[in-house]
Amino acid sequence: MSELQIYLIVIGAAIIVLLLGFNWFQDLRVRRRMQAEMPVIEQDPLLGQAFAASGEVRREPGLGSVLAADDIRDVSTLGETQEHPEATSDELGPDPSTEVVIELTFQGPMLGEDLAPLLQPLRSAGRKSVRIFAQDIEGQLDARLRLDGQYASVHLAVLLANRSGPLSAIEWSQIWNRAQALAEQLESGIEGPDQQYVLDAASRLDDACAALDTQVGLTLLLGSMRPVSEVTTAAKNMGFVPFEGGLAWLGDYGLVCFSLSRADTESIDAGMASVDRLTMLLDVPCSPVDTRAFGKMSEVGFELARRLGGELVDDQLRPLQQGADVAIDEKLKVLYSQLEKAGFAAGSPRARRVFA
To answer: What CA–CA distances, in Å, run from 332 to 37, 295, 328?
Structure first.
């Protein structure tokens, strides 16, 4: 190797070291600026009046979680259905109670048609959803990207917690790194909260939601293996519709009141061609408020059991008695009230995001 080649290698290595050092300095400066601009929040707007952090885990489906409720208080009469103002305003912008935002600011206006394919990889962070809002050149946020629209920035609303648990450091790093890569590609600015702030907020939200999460299940014993086609036909004739690999009973606004699925958790038409038991599930936070939510599920369950020659039992496999629904529906009224007070109106878009 000649002396000239050695000098060139040394010079090249020095340039690489300088570039790495410059990039590190730029990243450090951006992060410091982000932390300095983050407001000090002494109390979460949603969780301040909700539940204190506890080690309680999410409850499994079953009658016991309802009947064993210790904190039972009188509540005002709840209507059969309830309108949620959030349902019409959910797409106006990120939800500061349940989401944290990463903002990318462009150097100049970008067309929606150019932006759309670049945002596709940013719609999830591990098992947490990411809602994307584009801000047009007039400052308006929109959840629907118009291909002919001109946009100045995008806001990535990262969900802090759901039934998979709080947003983890790995999930946050995943979405942050993807957003940072896009910012570098577009030479745009990027701002977002400090990781520790995000993880702390995620943990508090998860603790509060764990205290509110209740699902009530019933089992339909068929007595013997029955063809899946026979079971689904009977259910659909009663009014069930296909939903996420199972069947669902829909209420007002097309919201799922309760679901029907195979007890082995397989898709209703997957795996074995026959089944011997089914599961009916009332997902309290995700279903619309109803003063007879469990009663209606029981009535439908009894009728389906009659048509299939089966038996409806509780989570202890004890035959469900006629009239047992009254006490459970009274407990559900309390749970609906608690969800409402905590900011998670049952069946609302916010509740369906967090309790997913």
So the answer is: 43, 11, 6
Q: Cβ distance 209 to 355 under 8 Å?
A: yes
Domain range summary for the chain, segments of one domain joined by +: 215-354
Nearest to 167 by CA among 104, 99, 95: 99
Average pLDDT value over all residues in the chain? 82
Confidence (pLDDT) at 84: 46
Sheet order of strands, 311-313 included:
241-243, 246-250, 256-262, 274-283, 215-227, 311-313
Residue 201: pLDDT over 90 = yes
Looking at CATH, the fold of the domain delimited by 215-354 is given as Cell Division Protein Zipa; Chain: A, (3.30.1400)
pLDDT digits (tens, 9 = 90+) for 61-108: 444 444 433 332 222 223 333 444 454 456 689 999 999 999 999 999
Asked whether residue 277 carries a pLDDT value surpassing 70, the answer given is yes
Q: CB pairs under 8 A, 24+ apart, for 322-327?
A: 324/298, 325/292, 325/294, 325/295, 325/298, 326/295, 327/67
